[in-house]
Amino acid sequence: MTDTQTKRIDELMKGTVDLHLHPGPSLHPRKVDHFQVARDAHEAGMRAILLKDHYYPTMPIATLINDNLGLDVEVLSSIVLNNPLGGLNPSAVDYALKQGAKIVWMATAHARNHMEHEAKEADFKNKFPVNTKKTVAAIPATLTNDKGQVHDEVKLILDLIAEADATVSGGHHHIDELYPFYEEAKARGVTRLFLNHPTYVNEGSFQDIAALVRMGVKMEHSICMFVPSTFHLFDDEHLKSAIDAAGVENTLFGSDLGQKNNPTPVEGMRQIIEVLTRIGYSDTQIRAMTSTNAAELVGLA
Known about the structure:
Structural class: alpha/beta
CATH topology: TIM Barrel
CATH superfamily: Metal-dependent hydrolases
Number of strands: 9
Radius of gyration: 18 Å
Helix content: 40-55%
Order of helices and strands: HEHEHEEHEHHHEHEHEHEHH
Distance between the termini: 35 Å
Strand order of the largest sheet: 4-5-6-7-8-9
CATH class: Alpha Beta
Low-confidence stretches: none
Largest sheet: 6 strands, parallel
Mean pLDDT: 96
């Protein structure tokens, strides 16, 4: 990489927002902890990062970092509705939102769809991190019943999210569950909607991306799936097609990084900026997809 390219990436890193970091401590093996990713983001000139763990909410950690480390990066928090939080648990969501959580994820590792992939696909199981300690068997979560109707507890969760003006993701549930889920979210007044890695475990197509965007759902792509990492799945052509399906204005990037044997989140953000410059996106478009779209999604001033 030339000095000019490096300087361009340095400049584009300033003000970036990553809503999908996986630092430790965690039952999954992690390369960096919450304090280190915050310090790294500060040094890179990032505007904000959001801490995510599949098994515990991150509000207290974000508050401690923001109040005590004196960094020029805002650290945001979230909750993921897997089994350790009681699954699709309105009370857990209520308490999380009242402590400042910006994003509520529906089930990820404990979504029935995710667990079915893990049971039948060796490659999928090898890519997703494995707990370092044995845990009790998970109860699979669904968003809808056998008739495709959204569960009552999910409706209550959506009401809480709407009241708090927070952001929601459909997690790792199947695309067939996500259509009624996002429709219900809109009907209940949730305005901040997004979906992560839509063509991965959710099994969405480019056509699904376009359809969900028309419903008001933003698309977040996991950087780790487009750069050298243990999760690398997709080439530049896939990336370009996914962006085209949603439009630059509806696309954002989260690193989805923090695992051992992978780039750090800041390294991943630098790498996706390099990819985006290589395949022809302008600085303005790159800033939208790595900064302003994410900031607007979670309501940063």
